[in-house]
Amino acid sequence: MTIRGTVDAVTTKGATGWAYAPGRRDDIVVQAVLSHEVIGDAVATGYRPDLAAVGMGKGNCGYTIEFYREIDPLYLPFVSVKVDGGDAELPRAGQLGFSEFFTALHGAHPAAGRSRSVLGGLWTDRTDAAAMLKAKTEIGQIAPEVAPIVGQLVHLGIAIVEPLEGFHDRPAGEPDGARLARFLEATPLLTALRAVLEDNPLVVAAAPCHGDTALVQPSAESRLPSAAECLVVATPAADHDIAVEIVRDSHRLPEFTPGGVSRWANGQVHAGIEIAAARQGLLTRHALSPGAAALIGPGTIYRLRCSEEAAGLKMICAPARAMPMALAGDTSRRETVGKSGLRLWL
Fold first, then answer.
1. What are the pLDDT digits (tens) for 295-320?
2. How many other C-beta atoms lie within 10 A of the C-beta of residue 72?
3. Are 300 and 251 in contact (CB under 8 A)?
4. Phi, psi angle pair for 78, to nearest 5°
5. Separation of alpha carbons 267 and 262, rounded Å
6. What percentage of the chain exceeds 70 in pLDDT?
7. Beta-ladder partners of 246
């Protein structure tokens, strides 16, 4: 005889659902089982008007199982509900118990990695980033002199790379591919970019900035298929200091909607975010002197602050592996390849 039913909900204290067998005269007994141990049972005779409305007999087929003892949330995904003491299991509705499982898992093991956003991303989007950085530094995958820069990005959502002594080939005026390549290939900037991107950098856009720009996220302005895997490199484009202002801890927030669109892509939110951040004292300012660069993570809400005589330049970088096919076929752009393999499409 066919038995139909589901497990509608599972908590640390019990489970609910329904079980129905057309034409069966005796009641259906359901048992909650964890690791071959019965932790609760019930009879599926509870009235469910929703089931009566769709023809499941008179609707008297619901069950509520109260566990004999409260269980640890870590075990929620592994609780099964079986019928009549046999091996037949009722299917679960959706991913029941898994959110509680991960909440408990990461509460007990904070270093266990997961992404904050729907799409995942670079270091700033990983909860295990600090542990991962420590391990990669210890095994030599990330150079010790670059680790503090990556650490800044992890903890602050922005990292400042100080200017090199005697380095004057910084960008100026309109973006020029060869000059930008030389700037980005300077040590330790290139080493830091490779460590963050885990690949050679690919520059997909470069734009000069004057005055103050609007608050925005790199992920919202990149227009890349993998927007979560991008960062902005900002630097002064003249012999004057500029500043990068960020909304503190914004890199820790999920930046994407379930549809994969940055929550801050809509320009209407900028003014509200700016007012709220200013009132709450959440805006943090980072000064950039000529030759210095700021690495800004994909989820960090930021803007450039340039005085009348100053100018800034921001470049959107992605790992070379994320290069969109449409970019290679865009005849309006020109590719520049640096000595290191760094690529710019401008």
1. 999 888 899 999 888 889 999 999 88
2. 11
3. yes
4. -105, 5
5. 11
6. 79
7. 284, 302
pLDDT by residue (tens digit) across 188-244? 999 999 999 989 999 999 989 989 988 888 887 877 766 678 899 999 987 889 999
The mean pLDDT value for 72-82 works out to 85
C-alpha to C-alpha distances, 247 to 82, 294, 301, nearest whole angstrom = 51, 15, 6
**Which conformational region is residue 114 in: left (phi greater than 0), alpha (psi within -120 to 50 degrees), or beta?**
beta
Q: Which residues are CB-neighbours of 307 under 8 A, at least 6 positions away?
A: 240, 242
Give the pair of three-digit tokens for residue 267: 């320009």
Structure-token match 């503190």, residue found? 248
Residue 66 to residue 43: CA distance in whole angstroms: 11
pLDDT at position 156: 94
Q: Quick check: 166 pLDDT over 50?
A: no
Among residues 125, 128, 105, the alpha carbon closest in space to that of 115 is found at 125
Name the phi and psi angles at 277, rounded to 5: -65, -40
